[in-house]
Structures are given as C-alpha cells and as structure tokens.
Design goal:
The chain is built from 2 helices and no strands. The chain is mainly alpha-helical. The radius of gyration is 31 Å and the shape is rod-shaped.
C-alpha cells in the first residue's frame, strides 16, 4: 500500500466567509456590467431621441395649433 493516493481534505474552516466574499464580488461586477449595458442600450438612445425632438420642436407653433382648435377658452 505504498502507492496510495492521498485525498486532500475539504476546506471547512472559513468556507462561508470565502464564498460570501466571492459572491459579493460577483454581484458587484454583474451589477456594474448590467448598469453599463442598460446605459448603452436604453439611456443613450433615449437621450438622443429627446435631443433630436427638442431641436426641431417649436412650442409657440404648437400652442397656436392647440389654440386654433378651441381647446383654450381664455385665449
């Protein structure tokens, strides 16, 4: 029995702390990636659409258009 293979004992002391720290790191990294992707996929196109809309929007012309339909009683 001289060629017996020794099996490494499992780590029991500090296992919860080690796994908790790894889980926290994974959660932080996942949240950062998700936040970055959300900003690139949702927020940036929305900001560009608002910017494009407000460049061509004329509030006075829109007011006159609504006023001519008779919505406002006082104008």
């Amino acid at each position: 029995m001289a060629s017996e293979c020794k099996v490494k004992k499992p780590q029991l002391h500090g296992l919860l702390k080690k796994r908790a720290i790894r889980s926290i790191y994974n959660a932080v990294i996942s949240a950062a990636i998700a936040g970055f992707l959300f900003r690139m996929v949702v927020c940036s196109p929305r900001q560009q659409a608002y910017k494009k809309f407000h460049e061509a929007y004329d509030a006075n012309a829109e007011f006159e258009k609504i006023r001519m339909t008779g919505v406002f009683d006082s104008c």
